[in-house]
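I have been asked to look over a protein record a colleague put together. Alongside the sequence sits a line of tokens, each denoting a local backbone shape. I have pasted the whole thing underneath without changing anything:
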Amino acid sequence: MSDNTAIDVIDTLKPGSIEFSEISRQLVSNSLVSGPLETIFKSREIGGDPLIQAINTRQVHKFGGSSLADTNALNKVVQIIEEQTSKNDIIVVSANGKMTDKLVSAFNTSGDKLATVKSFYTELVHSFDFEHEKLLQDFENDIAAIYQSDNNNELKERDLLVYGEIWSARLLCALLKNKSHTSVFVDARNIFVVDLSDTNNLINNNLINNNLINNNLINFEFSTQKLDEIINANPKARLIVTGYIASDQYGNNYNFGRNGSDYTATLIGQILNIKQITLWTDVAGVFTADPNVVKNATPIKQLSLCEMQGLSELGSNVLHPKAIEPLLNYSSKVLIKSAFNDSKNGTEINQKVHSQEQGLIKTIAVKSNLNKIHINNISELESRIIQKNILLQQINFYAEHYNKTRHQLSFYVEELDEVLLILESLGFSSPFIDHKNVSLLSVVGQDIRQDSAVIRKVLTQASNYELLEIYYPSNSHCLSVIVPDVQSKNLLQDLHTTFFEQPPSIPIFILGYGNIGQQFVHLLTKDKVKIEKMLDCSLSIVSISNSKKYLFDKNGINSTPINLDLGEDNTDNQFIECLNNYYGKKAIIIDLTANQKIASLYLRFAQNNWHIISANKITGSNFDLATVVEKEIQSRDNYWLQNTTAGAGLPIQASIKNLTESGDVIQSVSGIFSGSLSWLFSQLNETQKFSSLLKTAQKKALTEPDPRDDLSGKDVLRKVKIIARELGYTSAKEEFEPAIKKELLEGTLEDFWSRHDKIDEYYSKLFKQAREQNSVLCYVATITPELLKVKLEIVNTNHAFANLNPCDNIFQIQSIWYAANPLIIQGPGAGREVTAAGVLNDLIYLLRNC
């Protein structure tokens, strides 16, 4: 606020009033105005809300290391300071770029420790066009002091690390002065004193946690006095304050640890009661998830302070718990914004709680590379001593828990070796290490633990992974789960999709990519958006295979068209290796093959907790195997859907199930169960050769690739057995004849086609015989409790089976309810379109109900 603005505000007040005196005191102490206020301001009546307008106009701006990393970044920061700060604001800075890492490396290096540091900083300074002799001289003096301490064996890491912020603040101060902006370098070691002498009070008062440890050690009275002195001595100047660093009670260097500059900024905010703090970073605020991991992550406009506190305590890099604690002590707002993005958007953090946001997930945090430590046979006081000593080493722990019954302390840490050394120094030399290399995934949102639907969704997704632990933090706005590091990214993506996008479907594996498989994928991708909207979940095909090749992508196969030639070798069902990653987790196997080896895997699929959708008839027609598979599936509340195995797209199995469950008793099922044979016999006439019709049907994909599979009648027999098993007719006798003489089917496929004359002659005779009886040829299946019969028959043209459309199947159900007038189900029974559509119907049903 300028002097003129301050005058405009206070000009509305009456001299001598309480409001006038209070505002005057604040304005003078904050160096917004100077001089005898009673003679400067005119007498005016109070209007508006001048008290709020005038007091606490100073703001704090903190710039992180990435914002100060190089020439371009520093120029951008100077521009931000010119355009978005006032001349009395406080600017807190971190070390330039990776300077702290360089200093840590230097401390652990023999020889010329500071070569890399000197090169980096001098090159950075020389990249700007201004008088930098004084700046570089101060830098050289610091380097000389560091070498002197090192030669005397007095150099400690904490002493070396303070220089990163000092050099950064000096450089920014010089750049602002070069632009004619009044600025003052402030060494935060002269403001903040950390008293480590009385930490036992923290233990006795049970104040050991990641929030309170540092703030309770700050000498606030001293800090307030020093800040007032600096402000009063430098009116109308921006203060460039070193973040991260402080002093202890003996005058030694001390640092606030990771995100320490944020803590410096919020401490200043608390001491001066500053109403707005802006943290400038390399990201545009807090996101719904780490945008480096989740591509669809989006910025969050607003977070409540309690949400941010929970997020910070669970390992988020956005704002450390130390930086949160000062904000809990007074009313303020924090803006997290990008120093590289010109957009004014960012994330605002304040103490407001919006009722419409209660129960909504705001963001998902991940803390990885954790290891669980158990310490047995200790008292609660000893557990607090352990926690205190870990925290005093700037090491954070997560999901801590003291079991009073077992006298056991457990927690997760990233710095395992350092913590083991601490424990050894305290006399706890044999801790139990459990769950190495794991991740803590936490969903955060106002009052989410009050919403059972949120908890259910989180735990449902986590159950698809190796869920090691469920953790309920003390912050009731968070819920956490712990899984292996190698699974954390996938779970993060699934949770993000669940709460911020369309929930993912269970992973889908498509086995078989022939005519039906290709048509199924076509239907699925063509109507994907509509189906996903209807199911409120995204469809996720992770693998497609045929007998030669397979494709696998755990994130979903989204490219079209599908080119299996680019896939991996699958001549020996190598795709099963991909399935091994989903053992015990939900998955959907869609079997569109006619493969015996795949059918033999069904029990394994069921035992692995997977759903199965079959167009393959082999397993379902094997009474014993099908019964075992079905029992295993049902014991796990999973689905085995095979509605296309008997009637392609016709609902024959569903109708049988509905009738029997409703109390009807089915006495027989008969009909034409082969769409390909239905088409062939409907097209047969005195001039058309059967072999020509068969080749036409093969080209139209109405038959199997080897048409002998249709003519043998084995496909129809499998359908008969599938229906019989569902009806419970498992002890019925079989009376089976192929649709052609057996000897014509023998040999290779080439042999079969070479006999086309005999085949044509065979069917020509049968056709003439049927025509003479005013009848037609039909391959009829009949199912009764006593007999399963499949046979090529001559059927009178008045019969329902004799008047089908080409390719139609017909199922005639006779039951107690349908005794005099049997129930007829008729429609297309062959073709990739109807079968693929039937499989898609099964998939939609499964996803809707699982």
In short: The longest strand covers residues 363-376. The radius of gyration is 39 Å. The first helix runs from residue 3 to 10. The CA atoms of residues 613 and 843 lie 7 Å apart.
